[in-house]
Write a structure and sequence with these properties.
single chain, mainly beta, 49% strand
Length: 214
């Protein structure tokens, strides 16, 4: 699935498996108009919340072309052409609503903002509960303050992710990613997540704190 605003959209889907796919978008951060590559997988609760979703053995990555300068020359004269960075979709998996979500054994790399982002309270059906994330390889992601590999943040007061296990994953910052895991409470909320377990993960060479809970 290549160069789409959303690779897969789930809305009220039940018993869904996404296995063995290569899902990639294209997001040019220097181009401000509407373009491809918002999220590789979107779970949105417009009609109902998703249930029993398993995402396994997929490759999430974009057009990995770093910002670069190329010199063209005819032997006498030369010109330098600057190419912007196309670094995949904004988010690999973007979830607004799902109950019983299993994300296992996937590769995530070089999205523009986050590799996995859970946002309870953003849709009409705002349930995010029982999330299991295990055995994934999270590679470097984006740049700037949005450079977070796994992110939970609520947009509605007192909307929370209820139950999340982040276990036995590899978070590779590559000296280019701010944070591995961040959980941000919404303004005025008591918490953005409850009953979160972070165990047995490998976290390497991030440019800021690997785990941020606030």
């Amino acid at each position: 699935l290549w160069r789409m605003p959303y690779g897969v959209i789930l809305d009220g889907a039940i018993n869904t498996k996404i296995y063995n796919n290569w899902i990639a978008g294209n997001w040019d951060k220097l181009y401000v108009a509407m373009q491809e590559g918002v999220a590789d997988v979107l779970m949105i609760g417009t009609s109902a919340h998703c249930q029993l979703t398993r995402i396994k053995d997929n490759y999430f990555s974009g057009a990995v072309n770093s910002t670069r300068n190329t010199t063209y020359s005819d032997g006498v004269n030369s010109v330098v052409k600057s190419y912007p960075s196309n670094i995949g979709s904004q988010v690999g998996i973007l979830c607004f609503s799902c109950e019983d979500l299993n994300i296992s054994d996937n590769y995530f790399g070089r999205n523009s903002y986050n590799l996995v982002r859970l946002v309870p309270g953003a849709g009409a059906y705002e349930i995010i509960a029982d999330v299991r994330t295990k055995g994934n390889f999270f590679d470097n992601v984006g740049d700037g303050t949005e450079s977070i590999q796994f992110r939970i943040d609520a947009q509605v007061i007192n909307a929370s992710v209820l139950g999340a296990v982040i276990d036995s994953n590899t978070f590779n910052g590559e000296y280019d990613t701010n944070n591995a895991i961040c959980i941000f409470a919404s303004p005025g909320a008591t918490h953005a997540a409850a009953n979160v377990e972070i165990t047995n993960n490998g976290m390497m060479v991030h440019t800021a704190s690997p785990i941020v809970l606030t």
